[in-house]
Amino acid sequence: MTGTSGKPTRDLLFPDLSDVIDERIAWFQHQHKNEPLRHRAEYNMWEVFRYEDVQTVLKNPETFSVTDKTHMGLPFSFGRADIEEHRFLRGFVARSFVPSTIEGQAPAFASMVDALLEPALASGKLEVLGDLGYPLMDHVIGHLFGLRIPGPGRFRQWSDQMFGQLVGIFQPDHAEVVGMLTEQLDERKREPTGDLMSALLAARAEDDRLPEKKIIHMCLDLVTAGNAPLSLFLSYTFARFCADPAFYQALRRDPALIPGAIEEVLRFDFSWFNLWRTARHDTELAGYQIKAGSYIVAWDSAANFDESRFPQAHRFDITRSPNPHLPFGQGMYICLGLPLVRTLGRVVLERVVRTFEEIRADPDRPMRTQERMIDYVVSLDTLVTPAKASVP
Ligand code: HEM
Q1: CB atoms within 10 A of CB 121
Q2: Other beta carbons less than 10 A from residue 270's beta carbon
Q3: What is the 163 CA–ligand 1 centroid distance (Å)?
């Protein structure tokens, strides 16, 4: 429960998360009412549950720092860089994630999705993560950043390593992926290509705040950060299709419901996420006195079930509006991939509802999850029935 350096590790939070979603929501809401901040003195840690308080933590990096999020052992990443450096580094990559730029890629994404769905038309089978989520992200990342992605499987392994480390279940060795990125950086040094790495190298020539090591680690963040959560998002959505065929048919009949469905899956199904910070100085939050150096666990997932923001929060409602959910965080460290998740998620679901009349869980291959983590889906095998005619 504490690592070698004495800092708390994420696995100490697992026991509180019931496998049953209704119980989990009940626990979050119990905390909202009875113990909005929980002090766990043995870990020098405060857990924060209410929407307003989670928002305060995330939006005030001057008080709640990201730089010592707990010892995740990750190589340097701009997601953990302190305020000034983060602003500087994020500026370089943010332009690749401007919503209109990403939206302009929708036709290219649609072709990628169609190509990945094609084998399922013939076989009647689709494993959501291995056949769709991860290979799609390989193509998308290669396409957006101009990076050469090694053969299938490798990239997934690296992405899982990174994500698993973030959520506290692995302590992997990143040497291989860092080696691959270093090789590509060397190629760009010899021959710039106009891609993200080349642009970072050009910027480095003029600014010594961008050493090569940081370029590599930024690229590592970008190529691996989103693959597991995006694939998980698809697995959660498909699991809902399997459990509730009427939900799937509603989206088929009216694809305009897809964006609202995406937002509600994001609010509801990442109900295990939490974001870590450290108090820089003594401070007060919601009437509680927090000492400098305390670890702060902002339960963004609990905030997503706070009745003060989400009336009837326990109801899965794809028409919910507004839906100011927090699974991407908030403030200056908010997930950079958010516009990509929205556009790519929409494109995938639009293509899926056109392509398949029905989606069912494969009774011979039950969904598999990581040991001890029911939310971390490893495979979801489905049986799909091709549509007789495309729905409009
Ligand atoms: C459903 C899918 C996703 C979820 C739920 C998600 C969630 C998150 C969260 C919670 C953070 C940390 C925020 C914080 O520390 O305050 C984050 C950061 C980040 N995410 Fe995502 N993410 C998703 C997909 C993606 C994708 C597809 C990409 C890119 C290809 C991506 C790239 C990043 C990057 C680069 C950061 C660091 C941002 C920064 O500190 O400036 N994410 N994400």
Answers
A1: 15
A2: 20
A3: 10
The alpha-carbon radius of gyration of the chain (Å, integer) is 21
pLDDT of 331 strictly over 90: yes
Helix H or strand E segment including 295: strand 295-298
Average pLDDT over residues 135-151: 86
220 lines ligand 1 (CB under 6 A): no
Q: Is residue 3 part of a domain?
A: no
Q: Whose CA is nearest to atom 17 of ligand 1?
A: 335
* CATH number, position 139: 1.10.630.10
Q: Look at the pTM and tell me if it is higher than 0.90.
A: yes
Q: Measured from the CA of 80, which atom of ligand 1 is nearest?
A: 40
The total number of structural domains in the chain stands at: 1
What proportion of the chain, given as a percentage, has pLDDT over 90? Answer: 67
Count of CA atoms in the C-beta half-sphere (13 A) of 84: 1
| 335 Cα: distance to centroid of ligand 1 (angstroms) | 3
Tokens matching residue 235: 């697995």
Asked whether 230 lines ligand 1 (CB < 6 A), one says yes
Whether residue 155 contacts residue 227, with contact meaning beta carbons closer than 8 Å, is answered with yes
Q: Is 83 in the pocket of ligand 1 (CB under 6 A)?
A: no
Q: Is the CB of 276 under 6 A from ligand 1?
A: no
Give the burial class of 152: count Cβ atoms within 10 A of its Cβ; 0-12 exposed, 13-18 middle, 19 or more buried: exposed
- State the residue range of the domain holding 242: 10-386
219 belongs to a structural domain = yes
Query: Is 243 contained in some domain?
Result: yes
